[in-house]
Amino acid sequence: MSESKTHSASTETGAWSTSGYFMLILMIVMVGLTAMRVIGFASGSPSEDEVPGFIATIAALPVAIVFIASGFYMIQPNQAAAINLFGSYRGTDRNHGLRWVWPWMTKTKISVRANNVVSEKLKVNDLRGNPIEIACNVVWRVADTAQALFDVDDYKAFVFVQIESAVRSIGSRYPYDDIEHHEVTLRGHHDQINDELRTELNARLVLAGITVDECGLTHLAYAPEIAGAMLRRQQAEAVISARKKLVEGAVSMVEMALNQLSEKNVVELDDERRAAMVSNLMVVLCGERDAQPVVNAGTLYQ
């Protein structure tokens, strides 16, 4: 039976390279020497012994010039170049400016600048099964050039796919909203959701040598097919919650009024009068309109 091979992660290392400006000066000197030799040979009458030396010099200097010219490459700020030798990774050069390396080395440039991506609006079912639309903004950059180039086929496409997967995972992990404020929700806990999204993205993108500096939800809404129904539900829940608070406050105020009346002996109330007072106070405190006072000239029993 053949054994399955595990994935071997690449690791960025420094590459050998030198300043291209020194090699540029050396090449210019060689060009000048070649020109001087040609001019000197053309203007004089060299002997037969000098001809072989001249031919060797004229043949060697252009080869050396071409050799040096083939090793130049330039790196912009926040850019790197992976150096390979016949398919073998030899390191990454992060020194910007004009650089030079052996001509038989191949150079693959890669940007290490920050990239900003706004994902498409995705339709996801939240924790309660409600369809919602969700999108996010992600700021990412290449942290390990060797992993980005050699461990995934296309690291940019890999980033887009993993962003979509992470957003779907976070969207289905929490409810959209909770009127009781007992649960962590997508709408009410932005900082916590954004931190968790960033942590999950970093865990998913570490394979490609990508790090996420910042991310956050940019769009969050119920899907159009249930938006109207959920709006009415939210309105109903808000009314119920407001009524509940209103009743709790009214009961507390009625209880306080009855206790103070009894403690200060303002009036003696039997059960029937107490019930009538409670009813009147609850109507006054819980009514949506201002109460209209009615003067009772008789008694409760008339």
UniProtKB/TrEMBL annotation:
<keyword id="KW-0472">Membrane</keyword>
<protein>
    <recommendedName>
        <fullName>Band 7 domain-containing protein</fullName>
    </recommendedName>
</protein>
<dbReference type="InterPro" id="IPR036013">
    <property type="entry name" value="Band_7/SPFH_dom_sf"/>
</dbReference>
<keyword id="KW-0812">Transmembrane</keyword>
<keyword id="KW-1133">Transmembrane helix</keyword>
<feature type="transmembrane region" description="Helical">
    <location>
        <begin position="51"/>
        <end position="75"/>
    </location>
</feature>
<dbReference type="Pfam" id="PF01145">
    <property type="entry name" value="Band_7"/>
</dbReference>
<feature type="domain" description="Band 7">
    <location>
        <begin position="70"/>
        <end position="238"/>
    </location>
</feature>
<dbReference type="InterPro" id="IPR001107">
    <property type="entry name" value="Band_7"/>
</dbReference>
<feature type="transmembrane region" description="Helical">
    <location>
        <begin position="20"/>
        <end position="39"/>
    </location>
</feature>
<dbReference type="GO" id="GO:0016020">
    <property type="term" value="C:membrane"/>
</dbReference>
